[in-house]
# Entry
Amino acid sequence: MKINLRGIIEDVDRHGNVRIYYRVKGKRKVRLREKPGTAAFLREHECAEAGIPYDGVVARPSPDSAKPVVARSFRWLCQQHFKRAAKGVTVDTMDRRRRILEEICTKYGDLPFDMMERKHVTALRDVRIESPGAANNIVKAISAMFAWAIEVGEAKVNPCNGIKRLKSGDGFHTWTLEEIEQFEAKHKPGTMARLALAIFMFTGLRLSDAAILGKQHLRDGWIRIRPGKTSGSSGVEVHMPLLSDLATELDSVAAGRMTFLVTEYGRPFSEKGLGNKMRQWCDEADLPHCSAHGLRKAGASIAAENGATSDQLKAIFGWTTSQQADLYTRAARRKVLAKDGAKLLIPDRSENKSVPLSEANLEKWDTKAENREENQIFTEKNGGPGGTRTPNQAVMSRRL
# Structure
């Protein structure tokens, strides 16, 4: 059937299956998987047009859809933020933020946003207390919106100030050196798995950036890439020297390849596809608990333990604040301090032992005693200390 929507193209794979894609110049190519002609397909196309991931949710009219938005309400501030701050962050970041804030709006959207206090934010956070990571994301989304609102003059106070993050960890296991060696033993040099390992280990790139890394990012022995996660916010560019171990693996890459990592069909990986492939390679090496992100963490830990400063870690991994870097430098310092201080746990067992004096010490002691005795005799014969010769001169002359 002919689909009369902007950017829709059809492609037939080698098995004769028809695949539908959204493809518009200047935008990312997206495969559309919903059935054409359905409301879900229209929603999927709408997400592709907006440049946001398809959420699988089909918009349905609600009783409140025609209800006007209350001025200066929480929902009003959210809508302002979505419209006016969209260019300041990546599409994925704004999409995650939107889902969190819109869920809050379902219950509290009509309340005045300038009446929101810290206790209200913590109450919203604690609804997800069983999932610390998700709970922290609620605070993070609200804080980001209010930080923007203060910057543009819509708000005066950020109600999230002073709220501490819940301890959660990011859920990714940090690879050990033994696990890296186990992976290397399974996947030999020259394989795509081994190349992926080298890229993750010696660049510190995220999955999304490792998937697009190619020869266009190499210049004069340096890797230069703008991480996608911060391209819309800080715009920081990572400059990293091409280390010899990685250069050796890259020597096997075909000359005309646009990206270093490709599928078995010679096509670039998507972010999700590369993650799934790393999962497969890890499973083949009997490392089911390891992941691509865990290699990034391993690299940060190794660098910190080798003496990297917080600023050096920020430059390597593209972090714009010291919060993440400080986690690794603090952990490395604690490890070094523990190593240096562990010997202090060993008691000094020689403290209460008696050590006999050597014969040499006795001789010196006897010589000093003899000198004191002869000095006393000299003093008595010469009527006191006023003689013409010193006591030591008298002793020496008598010995001669």
